[in-house]
Design brief:
2 helices, flat, alpha+beta, 4-stranded antiparallel beta sheet
Length: 78
């Protein structure tokens, strides 16, 4: 099993293995570069599965945001 913490800065997404000996150092360096945590860590059998789960979670948030934007536009709320 692998557990990854995803981070995002604007449109760039990266991840760190939570169980890595250098996790804390990598996290500190990425945050100093402006990266923010992107949700809770994700655990799966393989890295590719973690990435898929993160993309899926991100897509759901974007769909909700898009739906909310449409509703606000209909009612003229900005």
């Amino acid at each position: 099993m692998v557990t990854l913490q995803f981070l995002q800065s604007e449109d760039v997404v990266t991840y760190i293995d939570v169980n890595s000996a250098t996790y804390d150092e990598e996290l500190t360096q990425l945050q100093a570069q402006g990266f923010k945590l992107s949700g809770e860590p994700i655990t799966a059998k393989e890295i590719s599965e973690c990435i898929s789960k993160h993309k899926s979670r991100h897509e759901e948030k974007m769909k909700k945001y898009a739906a909310l934007s449409v509703v606000l536009a209909i009612f003229g709320i900005t």
